[in-house]
């Protein structure tokens, strides 16, 4: 069986060592035929969308059916922008799937700092084609950073499998998330149900 490469992309103000990211990477790396990499995004306190897109392009050398993205918060919209751009450059591009935690595609009312990440030309159809519809969105009803309605909307835009938890905040360490078994389960589901032609 070919190895699956999973890239974990953090959000605003985080590092590769924060929250549940190291735990998830360890779980992945201990599973047969799975390999994880946590990307350290540049200037996470004052993020620039072009720098973040460039980082993804540099750190993900191969996009194919064995490539998966697990993103949190700002990492989600960055990943979607990246995949949309990739598809417009190569319509034959594909990846195995994406798992978006606390994702959004519209401006966050409390975080105008991130407005530049919101692209009017984000191509949801391209992302669905590139992933063969293998997309999961996970949200929390009491998320205090990303209003859950925005995650609801994102799941609809992507026709994603959608999991909406009740009281999990923004899935940060401060919310109790230094481990995140559900994400590992959902990732394994994504891999198991990979819809390749």
Provide a brief overview of the structure:
The protein has 6 helices and 6 strands. It has 197 residues and is an alpha/beta fold. Strand 3, helix 3 and strand 4 form a beta-alpha-beta unit.
Average per-residue pLDDT, rounded, comes to 94
Order of helices and strands: EHEHEHEHEHEH
How far apart the termini lie comes to 18 Å
Structural class: alpha/beta
Rg of Cα set: 15 Å
Strand numbers in spatial order across the main sheet: 2-1-3-4-5-6
Q: What is the 3D form?
A: globular
Strand proportion: 15-25%
Largest sheet: 6 strands, parallel
Q: Could you give the count of β-strands?
A: 6
Low-confidence segments, ≥5 residues, pLDDT <50? Answer: none
Q: How many helical stretches?
A: 6
Describe this structure as you would to a colleague.
- The chain has helices at 21-29, 49-59, 74-89, 124-130, 148-157, 181-192, and strands spanning 4-9, 34-39, 67-72, 97-101, 135-140, 161-165.
- The protein has a six-stranded parallel sheet with strand order 2-1-3-4-5-6, sandwiched between helices.
- The chain is globular.
- Helices cover 33% and strands 17% of the residues.
- The protein is an alpha/beta fold.
- 41% of the residues are buried.
- It contains six helices and six strands; from the N terminus they run E-H-E-H-E-H-E-H-E-H-E-H.
- It starts with a strand and ends in a 5-residue tail after the last helix.
- The model has no long low-confidence stretch (mean pLDDT 94).
